[in-house]
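lol ok so funny story. i was supposed to be doing the assay writeup but got distracted and ended up predicting the structure for this chain instead. priorities right. anyway since i did it might as well share w the group, maybe its usefull for someone
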Amino acid sequence: MKYKKMKKAFAATLAFAMVVGTATPISVQAAAYDDHTMYMVANAHIDTAWQWPYEDTARDILKDTVGREIKALKEDPNRKFTMSASKHYEWVKEYYPDMYEDIKKFMANGQWDNPGGQVVEPDLNIPSGESLVRQSLEGQHFFEKEFGKTSTVGYVPDTFGFSGQLPQILEKSGMTNFVTTKLNWQNDGYSGQSERKSDVFLWNGIDGKSQILSYVPCRDYQSDYSDATIREAFARNKQQGAETNVKIAVGMFGGGDHGGGVDGNGFNKYVNKTVDGADVKLATISEFFNDLKKQDLTNVRKVDGEMYFENHRGTYTSWGQVKKYNRKNEILAEKAEKAAAVGNWLNAMPNAEAANLSKAWDRILINQFHDVLPGSALPYAYMDTYNDQELAERLMENALDSGMDSMAYVANTQVEGTPVLVFNALSWNRDGMVETDVKFDEGIPDKLAVYDGAEKLLTTVLKRDEENKTAKIRFCAKNIPAVGYKVFSVGADKGGNVASSLSMSNTGNDIVMENENLKVEIDKGTGNIRQIYNKKDGNRKVFVDGTGSELHVLKDTGGRNYPA
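and the output, tada:
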C-alpha cells in the first residue's frame, strides 16, 4: 500500500512537474515580444506602366484603387493607407477631382501617407544624377503645393537596384528614410533574407557624408503576414551576433502591380491583434520610420555605397532605343536649360522657356519608371515612350535654338567670312569637334577653312551642295568659354598649314595613328583596331584580348522568371 501511495504521489508530482515544464517555455515565448510592435502598412503598388500602358493606369487602375481605399478609410478612421508617386496623384486630381478632395482630407487627418517624393518610382541605375534630383525636385514640389508637406521616406519597393549616390540625393531632398522589398529577390530570386544580417540598417552614400535610415521588410510589398511571419520579422533584427536592439518591425500588405490595394476585410485582419505579446497596429510607412528613429540604433549595421540587385541584369541592355532616347534627352536638357538661362541673362528670353522645359522634363521623368526605362514593359507601352521622348526633344531643341539666337543677337559676328557661333554648355573651358551646315551667299569656295581670328583650324568638308550653296563641315573649335560662346569664321582657305600633334605611319601590316594622348594600331588587312595605347597612363593597353571594331553576335537566353 505504501508503495502504491508513494507511486501515486510520485506520479502526481511528476505530472505537476511536466505541466510546469511545458508551461514555462510557453510563458517565456508569450512574453518574448511583449514590448515589441509590428507596423502593418496598407499600400497598393501601382506600376505606372508594365503589362499595360500609362493610359490604363490613369483610366482604370487609379480609379479602382483610390476608390476602394477611400471607401475603406471612411468606414473606419483607424485605417491608414500609403501611396507614392506624384504623377499618380496628378492624374487623380485631373480625372477624379472628387476623389482627390477626399485624399486631401485623409492626408490632413493622418490616414493617408505620401512617401516617395518622386514623380514615379524610377529606375535607379540608368538615369543621370541630375534626373534623380529632378525626380525628387518635381515630386516634392507637387506634394508641398498640394498637401502642405513633403515626403520623408524614399519609397521604391520594386526598383531593380540602388545607386550609391541615392542616399545623398534623398537626404538633400528631405527624405531621410528608405524602404524597399526588392532586396528579398537576390540571387535565385528569394535568398535575400538569408543574406541579410538584419532588415534595418543605416545606408551610407558614396559622398562619405550622407546616411539614411533604411528597412527591407522580410516579405514582398503585397504579402499577408501570419503570426509566424510576424515572429520572423522581429527575429530578423535579432540574429545571433548581429542583434540590433530594435523592437519594432514593418510589413506591407495590399494588392499590387496592377493596383488593387486593401478592402475592409484586409484591414480587419490586423485589428486588435497580438502575437506573443507584441502589438500589431495599422500605420503608414512614415509613422513607422518616425517611431524607428526613437529606437536604440546603436548596434544597427551600416551599408556603404551601391546595393546592386543580382536579378534583372538584362535591364541594362533590353530595349536599347528607350535608353538611347533617355540619355540623349538628359544631355539635351542640360544644354537647353543653360542656353535659355544665358538668353534670359542677356534680356532676350524673359521666361527662359521655363514652361516648355518643364513639360520636356516631365516627359523624361515619367519614362524613367522602373519597368519602362529598364526594358521590362510590354512593347505596346513603348509607343507612348517614343512619342513622349520625341516631344521632349522638340521642346528642348526649340529652347536651345532660342537661347543661341539670343547669343547671336548680341555677339560680335563681324568676321571676314560666314560667322559660326559655338556654344559650350559645360562648366569649364573646352576644345571640341563641331559639325554644322554653312550657307554661303556667293557660292561655296573651292577650298574651305575655319578661322579663330587669324588662326587656321583643322577643317574637314563632309558634303557640298553647290545648288543650295551649302556645305557640311567639321572643325576643331578651341578654348570655348564655360557656359559661353565663341564666334568663328568660315570662308576661303588662305593657305598655310594647321598645327597638329597627330601623326600617321605605315608599319608593314599596320597603320599607326598617334598624338600626345593615344597611339592606335589599325590592321590593314581587316580594318580592325589591333590595339590602343593610353600614353597618359604608361602606354596601358586598352584591349586585353582580341581587337577593336570586331563584330560579335550574342544570344540573349533570358530567364525563367521576369526575363528582363
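The two ends are 81 Å apart (CA to CA). The chain is about 35% helix and 20% strand.
back to the writeup now i swear
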